[in-house]
TrEMBL record:
Transmembrane spans: none
Keyword match ATP-binding: no
Cited InterPro entries: RraA/RraA-like, RraA/RraA-like_sf
Chain residues that bind Mg(2+): 107
Name of the protein described by the UniProt record: Putative 4-hydroxy-4-methyl-2-oxoglutarate aldolase
Pfam families hit by this protein: RraA-like
Cofactor: Mg(2+); a divalent metal cation
Enzyme class of the recorded protein, top EC level: lyase
Signal peptide range: none
Keywords from the named record: Magnesium, Metal-binding
Catalytic reaction list: 4-hydroxy-4-methyl-2-oxoglutarate = 2 pyruvate; oxaloacetate + H(+) = pyruvate + CO2
E.C. designation(s): 4.1.1.112, 4.1.3.17
Length: 210
């Protein structure tokens, strides 16, 4: 997908990648949080649309997604446990990179023990039906973000971003440059400079007469 390694992309993080992308609508709703502390993931999106409170679409996604994919699921923010330990075990065996779901999951302690990265908008023990296979691989929309198969998904403690596939190269180039510039800024700040000066903000508004 890019010459940058997953470790490098995770080091840049979701915030830097969002700021580096020409498309500003990349941040998924803030309600989508890590299901367990320290979870993080990176990989190409495999989009899935599920019915609220129904996880049959996720079972099909486990079969159809490719190793390294991140399952990105629109489950309509439903307060159900669409995903749990059993599915995480299969996902790990297949080599999937993680799960992002606009909806609920359960078995979070077990998934923490497994080390399978999960991000969800809800945590719920409520069971699910298995009646609708949903859509597999077709574009979905979560919040104001359109997600297509192959888009770069990065999720960490700050949130989840989806970088359009055709903008990944320029986004990663800008992220690397941003990292270099911020290293210089950090050095200036440690030497005693003010953020107003390093960012050229002094004089834009001086409410105290400075």
């Amino acid at each position: 997908m890019s010459p940058a390694t997953p470790e490098q992309i995770l080091r840049w993080g979701s915030a830097t990648l969002h700021e580096s992308c020409p498309e500003r609508r990349t941040v998924l709703p803030g309600a989508i949080r890590p299901a367990w502390p320290g979870a993080q993931l990176v990989g190409p999106a495999y989009p899935v649309k599920a019915a609220p409170g129904d996880n049959l679409a996720l079972h099909w996604a486990l079969l159809r997604a490719a190793p390294g994919d991140v399952l990105v699921v629109d489950a309509h923010d439903a307060d159900h446990g669409h995903w749990g330990e059993v599915m995480a075990v299969q996902a790990l065996a297949k080599g999937l990179a993680g799960l992002v779901v606009w909806g609920g999951v359960r078995d979070t302690a077990q998934q923490h023990s497994l080390g399978f990265p999960v991000f969800s908008s809800r945590i719920s023990p409520r069971g699910t039906a298995k009646e609708w296979a949903g859509t597999q691989g077709a574009p979905i929309r979560i919040g104001d973000v359109d997600i297509a198969q192959g888009d770069l998904i990065v999720a960490d403690a700050d949130g989840v971003v989806a970088i359009p596939g055709d903008l990944v190269p320029v986004t990663l180039e800008r992220a690397a440059e941003r990292e270099r510039k911020e290293a210089a800024i950090m050095a200036d700040l440690r030497a005693g400079s003010a953020t107003l000066d390093v960012y050229g903000l002094r004089g834009l508004d001086a409410p105290f007469g400075d």
